[in-house]
Specification:
Family: Belongs to the glycosyl hydrolase 13 family.
Helix content: 25-40%
Protein name: Trehalose synthase
Structural class: alpha/beta
Number of domains: 3
Distance between the termini: 75 Å
Keywords: Signal
Strand content: 15-25%
Strand order of the largest sheet: 10-9-5-2-1-13-12-11
CATH topology of the largest domain: TIM Barrel
CATH architecture of the largest domain: Alpha-Beta Barrel
CATH class of the largest domain: Alpha Beta
Radius of gyration: 25 Å
CATH superfamily of the largest domain: Glycosidases
Number of strands: 21
GO molecular function, one term: alpha-amylase activity
């Protein structure tokens, strides 16, 4: 037995136990009375096709925390019916994809990443019928829907783990990761990921660092990358991947358009040093993408914080979020010259095959990427507009975090992740924010009175209309969604680049500084005419000289987009 396998199993492989689990999977049989009863039946592929247009996934996405988006029944918790009722808002905004944070049954009753049933909807969110209706209604508006699939781990309350922790005789023991004694030397983000089973650490609600240390000689530990409430699956056990493959097909067969795959670099750990982004994890991820892409017009995007450009390659995940770029974008929007240079070098230096599939964003549901954008920018409206105008027009697939389009701030009086996961601000109602007719499950945004959908709908100069204009430009010009990226140039607090697909040729220019700037646009066709499409101040057409250069004057904290037309164009 190899050293890494000795960490993955508390004991050598138990063929009888594996045969039992595998047989149950293959036959779809009911589990014995003493074992858990989730649906482990195999699910064959039944592709329902797709009503979406080819390339829909190159449009902008909206990330939605269903619990915080819209409540349809007055219980103070957002749900699927509430989200469905707001699809017109997303359609008017111009998004082409909707990413749902976890909607499956879970033990945490909040974020949803502690899954208790991979084939069921969380009861507080609704039913499978509600889910199916959401898919139908979104498709009718040209919007694809993907959802978080939390493949790395389950909840400690998942029936499979409850059975597995009973002891070595459990037929599901090898679905998780065990060690007789706590392995030494492990440190994942400041925590030892091995937890003493008999101490029931999953009942501990605080920081894992505050758990009492097991007594010397304690036996029986399980592995949990993200804390004791979420034990890792053992992906060296074939039945585990078989189960997840069937669960993925369960949703794809219903018409779901794909997945955001959570924490895929952590699927397999080899030892205390080689635990992140191992070759085995990459192989599993590539296999998952092949499974999903076997269906019509489906999409996968991965959370892979260490090497997102690798995971964005077509042969691995096919798309991945650009972790690290988001902070540069936010700092650049505030005039930080070093950050502007980083934005230019990141995009210009990335392989074209990865850059086309990278997932850009400014903020998301995890506090480690930053607070709500309005809070990061300390209310600087001009910088906010510049940040949006930059990432929405860069290569890749941008994801807007719900409420970002109206400048929603964090939830009043809260900190950490709850601060950035507050109810959506639909109206200025100080009690409900238009989110519910009842009592909201969490505090409302601190800037609710001014930054809400109703107020911004009525103001054509609002941030909401700014986002709509940017997405309209993106949707009308294929060069933005799928075109090449070239002539990227950062100079001080200014940035210019070009996007082109066939005859659709655009030039983007940004002045993030607090003073006017003259930018040198280069690499244009000789004599080309630059027709303004979108800019902060009064539009101005430009003409390139015989060498393909054109000077452009931009006011402080402003941007402009021009369409490049042939020299003979009027």
């Amino acid at each position: 037995m190899s050293p890494h396998l000795s960490l993955r199993f508390r004991r050598p492989f138990a063929p009888a136990a594996v045969a039992l689990a595998g047989g149950l999977l293959a036959a779809g049989c009911a589990l014995p009375p003493a074992t858990p009863g989730p649906d482990l039946s195999p699910v064959p592929m039944q592709d329902p096709g797709s009503p979406l247009t080819e390339g829909w996934q190159h449009g902008a996405f909206m990330e939605v925390f269903v619990r915080a988006y819209a409540d349809s029944d007055g219980d103070g918790i957002g749900d699927l019916r509430g989200l469905t009722s707001k699809l017109d808002h997303l359609q008017r905004l111009g998004v082409r994809g909707l990413w749902l944070m976890p909607v499956t049954a879970n033990a945490d009753g909040d974020h949803g990443y502690a899954t208790t049933d991979f084939r069921a909807i969380a009861p507080e969110y609704g039913t499978l019928a509600d889910f199916d209706d959401l898919i139908r209604q979104a498709h009718a508006r040209g919007i694809g829907v993907i959802m978080d699939y939390v493949i790395n781990h389950s909840a400690a309350a998942h029936p499979l783990f409850v059975a597995a922790r009973q002891g070595p005789a459990s037929p599901f023991r090898d679905w998780f990761v065990w060690a007789d004694a706590a392995p030494a030397g492990w440190d994942i983000w400041g925590n030892n990921p091995w937890y003493h089973t008999a101490s029931q650490p999953w009942l501990h609600g605080g920081d894992p660092k505050t758990l009492a240390r097991p007594a010397p000689g304690a036996r029986d530990f399980y592995f949990a990358t993200f804390g004791p409430q979420m034990p890792d699956f053992n992906f060296r056990h074939p039945a585990v991947m078989d189960y997840h493959a069937s669960s993925l097909r369960f949703w794809l067969n219903r018409g779901l358009d794909g997945f955001r795959l959570d924490a895929v670099p952590h699927l397999i750990e080899n030892n205390a040093t080689d635990w992140n982004d191992q070759p085995e994890s990459r192989a599993l991820t590539a296999g998952i993408q092949r499974l999903v892409k076997a269906y019509s017009r489906r999409y996968t995007v991965c959370e892979a914080t260490a090497q997102p450009l690798d995971y964005a390659q077509p042969g691995l995940c096919g798309a991945a979020f650009a972790f690290g770029l988001e902070s540069a974008l936010v700092q650049a929007a505030q005039g930080d010259a070093a950050a502007v240079a980083k934005v230019a070098s990141y995009t210009a230096g990335a392989p074209a095959s990865a850059l086309a599939n990278i997932g850009t964003f400014l903020a998301n549901h995890d506090k480690f990427t930053g607070r709500r954008l309005m809070d990061q920018l300390r209310g600087d409206a001009a910088a906010y507009r510049l940040a949006a105008a930059t990432y929405l027009l860069l290569p890749g697939t941008p994801t807007i975090y719900y409420g970002e389009e109206i400048g929603q701030a964090g939830a009043a009086g809260l900190a950490e992740d709850p601060e950035i996961r507050g109810p959506m601000s639909w109206t200025a109602d100080a009690t409900t924010g238009g989110f519910t007719t009842g009592r909201p499950f969490r505090a409302l945004a601190s800037n609710l009175a001014t930054h809400n959908v109703a107020a911004q709908e009525a103001d054509p100069t609002s941030l909401l209309h700014h986002y709509r204009a940017l997405l309209a430009l993106r949707n009308q010009h294929p060069a933005v969604a799928r075109g090449s990226f070239r002539q990227a140039r950062a100079e001080g607090a200014t940035l210019t680049f070009q996007r082109q697909l066939g005859s659709d040729h655009l030039v983007m220019a940004y002045n993030y500084g607090r003073s006017p700037a003259r930018l040198a646009l280069a690499g244009l066709p000789a004599g080309a005419r630059l027709q303004p499409l979108l800019r902060t101040d009064a539009p101005a057409a430009l003409r390139a000289d015989g060498s393909g250069n054109a000077p452009a004057d931009l006011a402080a904290q402003s941007f402009a987009v021009w369409q490049v037309l042939p020299a003979g164009a009027p």
